[in-house]
């Protein structure tokens, strides 16, 4: 990849490639005249350590509000990010955000089982929504979220930051342009050691499932965009628990296989027992991969021709800027609810394949 | 790894570590007084391009005989390797090798379905046997081969060259010494594009199966020695054929999962559609892997701490020298028939899991 192409990819990930196609490129566009205001709902680790810092780097969106059930967290955020009192909500008075013109977008960073409720409440309050992955704990909930945002004429975007990461954009490009020919096999795995036995991830009522819901979804995503098709059936296997008490409520480790209409296969694994983190494609004429594929940083890309020479960016900033730009330009964003719903269909298919022991047909296009 | 340790590993792979443990190290040992003579049965690509050249580098064994059904091949071998007329056989007169004192070992490089017959005939002729992988096309055949060699008081070794390859020895050491803690997950895949539609590999009567038999067996091997335990059950999936005419007789692509008693899992894939070639271990405290893992050369080893600094060796020479040394010292070799039989049990388990759609128990230790 040439240097200029790299720079283009990095910039376009943040600003959208259309700026380059426009004869007005370089001039201030109407949407550049203002930034959107976002409120973060749920001030856990991801909001605190990733999203809020990223929002200090964004061009099209800025942190203006918080929603939290823990009053003791408020002073820190007020001091650090100059959050105004009128932009601070709790879960009871959250719906009053309908009257708050500072807040255009609500970013939902709550446990999975709360995504549907708060997406629907935010849409009813007239706000655009960015919702963390998985979008919900079921296809049914996901569809209700899409419907609610459509009815409110608001955008729904899922927290798929990797659609704005230059390593993953390069994987997509290599597939799309068939640089190494047609993809035949994807190996995609994502797992980590879940330490704290009391974390919400391990409670099914909050998480909706185990590592599949939490990080396996990245391997599903990766397989789908690296094959460049939608899978038509899935097989899956859950493995015996080595820590049955800790993982009594959710699966500990599982594998699954996606079969695609063009004959490509994806073989995947996800676990709460150990770190594994890879997206690999074997194509007719070579291979390409990202290791530490799904992390917030530290991606390492290689192809059968050599390393990917890509400069990392802030994924969260690029993602939120990209979504905000779409909202400002009044066009669909790159990671809409429909994209999240396709992963939910695969996840439900995997759980069904595990419980039935049979292959399960998928129809992600309907 | 230090330089001296590397050198030690390389040398010990060829000569056996015991030379260093002995107070006589460096002096001529009794077994060094002579080389064994080997006859290659089956002068296909592997014998021609790998084994015969490797036998020019061996210390304990040398090429003295050939067995071929194609008389036109003989003059080339006679000229290139100075094979004496009395050491040349065909498949009809092969059993007369019993009277040939030049030949101590027969190396069987025939299609899989002929391994059992020629191993048993060679044992009856009083010869030690090295048999290519897979050792046979069934557990039953494999057991008969072991029994025949035992009855004849001859050694049986399987062509598992990677047990003598320094990258794979390093994978085994990292597991054995728990350098990164206990292994939790192995990903092992081996596949290539089978070009010629008329090759024997695609004929079930000769091969006994598809990519699983031919190269998937390396992924089984790799998973077993990288976990350092024997699997207790297997699940497996065959995928629809993209070239059903070409692969009408054998599977085209398949995946399988091995579950180990300590809780480790191996997720594997094998195919005749595309190149994939990897052995990866995720352990409690880090990861280690070999890419281009199962090739004759070109291994690339890495751990979560950095690259494996290992100088490649000639795998085939190390393998044959190692087996020959065990024979000369009258002790068991490192890759005996029993090791081959364990892989045959896994292979039969995989095919059974595919046809039944259920998990299949394995007992490799009985």
UniProtKB/TrEMBL annotation, chains A, B:
<feature type="signal peptide">
    <location>
        <begin position="1"/>
        <end position="21"/>
    </location>
</feature>
<dbReference type="GO" id="GO:0000166">
    <property type="term" value="F:nucleotide binding"/>
</dbReference>
<feature type="domain" description="Gfo/Idh/MocA-like oxidoreductase N-terminal">
    <location>
        <begin position="37"/>
        <end position="160"/>
    </location>
</feature>
<dbReference type="GO" id="GO:0016491">
    <property type="term" value="F:oxidoreductase activity"/>
</dbReference>
<dbReference type="Pfam" id="PF01408">
    <property type="entry name" value="GFO_IDH_MocA"/>
</dbReference>
<protein>
    <submittedName>
        <fullName>Tat (Twin-arginine translocation) pathway signal sequence</fullName>
    </submittedName>
</protein>
<keyword id="KW-0732">Signal</keyword>
<dbReference type="InterPro" id="IPR019546">
    <property type="entry name" value="TAT_signal_bac_arc"/>
</dbReference>
<feature type="domain" description="GFO/IDH/MocA-like oxidoreductase">
    <location>
        <begin position="169"/>
        <end position="276"/>
    </location>
</feature>
<dbReference type="InterPro" id="IPR000683">
    <property type="entry name" value="Gfo/Idh/MocA-like_OxRdtase_N"/>
</dbReference>
<dbReference type="InterPro" id="IPR036291">
    <property type="entry name" value="NAD(P)-bd_dom_sf"/>
</dbReference>
<dbReference type="InterPro" id="IPR055170">
    <property type="entry name" value="GFO_IDH_MocA-like_dom"/>
</dbReference>
<dbReference type="InterPro" id="IPR050463">
    <property type="entry name" value="Gfo/Idh/MocA_oxidrdct_glycsds"/>
</dbReference>
<dbReference type="InterPro" id="IPR006311">
    <property type="entry name" value="TAT_signal"/>
</dbReference>
<dbReference type="Pfam" id="PF22725">
    <property type="entry name" value="GFO_IDH_MocA_C3"/>
</dbReference>
<keyword id="KW-0560">Oxidoreductase</keyword>
<dbReference type="InterPro" id="IPR008354">
    <property type="entry name" value="Glc-Fru_OxRdtase_bac"/>
</dbReference>
